[in-house]
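Problem: given the chain below (106 residues), write out its structure.
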Amino acid sequence: MRETSGGVEFGCDWVIKELISENLSPINVDEEFEESIRQCYPETITVLWMELDAVMVAKDSDPTAWRIAKDEWLDQEVSENLLMEIDSNYYRISDIEEYLDQELNE
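Solution.
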């Protein structure tokens, strides 16, 4: 049990979330999404005499579509239990499992 501004909170979910947020670093969602897309589309695009990164062209050409795609990717990663959201931050499940294994083995 812990005391909050709204009263008392029972359960242990808050303990786990607190331990994770204090001991692990959240991912940078923008960088992770960009890297995921870059793995799918590693090629460059030739426009006239310029060689352009396909990811940057997509990102700069249509920021709204990029944001929607990033949100869909994020939802998919969470639904596949690859990421966990805690207080609007995202953590890799594999990092959480590794942290818990370390703590249990100490």
